[in-house]
Amino acid sequence: MAYYRSQRKPLCLSPDKLEEWYNSLQEGTGSFNVHCRMAIDDVVTSIHRICSSNLVPFDVDRVVKSGSLGKGTVVKDLSDVDLVAFVNPPHLQPIIDVGPQEYKKQLAEVLKDMARALGQLQNVRSIDNKGFLITFKLINIGPRSGSVSIDLMATADCHLGVADNVKKLFDAMLRQQRSDRLYYSPAVIENQLAFVKGQPTAVKALIRLVKYWSYEFLPKGLQKSYKLELITIHCWESAGRPLRLDKAQGLRAVMLMLSNLSQLRVYWTLHYDAMRAEDVITRFQMRRPIVLDPSEPTDNVCSLYTEGDNMRLVRSAAQSALQSRLLQGVQVRQGWN
């Protein structure tokens, strides 16, 4: 099985052919990206229009495009799209003001109305209100009538530009059980988005390669991209943050890290300090691999790898990649060039 899988692109290529293959992948992605953005923009415009009419009892301040599309890490046919609608009070009040129980009641009403309104849009199908978010499929994208699955969340603005509100949010999350902490996470989506979106072009290119590898060689439940984006960024930072890099060296470095996940322990001190991060790791008895979300410290985005056989599955796939024609003879030098 490992031999068969290593015969698929890009792992079957020689290192000098990787750049050419990546560019051909991006050509298809570029066209899809443009049409997808236009279709998503139409949905966002429709949400604003619906929420400013009498079809629903609330209005929306803004809709943030997250996921691969918002971060600039789209890969054709393999990308996730998340939308987060910031609903104005009083129909949805900030969770840091009303607490999770009242917030969940308000959110349930908002999502019910949103799901009903989405059903009136021509190119929207398969609407499913999951209680925390709405999933739906957007069809007829571009000249080839592509489609994309979308997660739509709603939240209220916690005004995290105010330092006291950030502390209030994190303190509140620490008091909640895991299931309730999920309802706080959409409030930090803009900080989460900015962290990946602000990375250099070369890093985003490497992220796309890692994402393509994950969709080709990992089980479906382990393909979610955010944890892989953060691991790739950490790997790049460890190499000295090169702005120009050899993709084969970068990919090999990421595979080496994924084959040794039990040693991974990382966080970023952009929106919280090291003391806060260490307190959370200890309080929640987090097990490695530990990669804390840069936007909020209570979420170890790699916790899924500690469940069942997941770490072994990722390690096995990464080790197979390291033994492939593409990566086997590649030497990882400092600076990846």
TrEMBL record:
Query: Which ranges carry the 2'-5'-oligoadenylate synthetase domain?
Result: 180-327
The cellular component terms of Gene Ontology attached to this UniProt record, alphabetical and capped at eight, are: cytosol; membrane; nucleoplasm
Q: What is the top-level taxon of the source organism? A: Eukaryota
A GO MF label = 2'-5'-oligoadenylate synthetase activity
Polymerase nucleotidyl transferase domain segment(s): 57-108
Pfam families the UniProt entry points to = NTP_transf_2 (PF01909), OAS1_C (PF10421)
Q: Which Gene3D superfamilies match?
A: 2'-5'-oligoadenylate synthetase 1, domain 2 (1.10.1410.20), Beta Polymerase, domain 2 (3.30.460.10)
User: Which family does the UniProt entry place this protein in?
Assistant: Belongs to the 2-5A synthase family.
Protein name (record): Uncharacterized protein
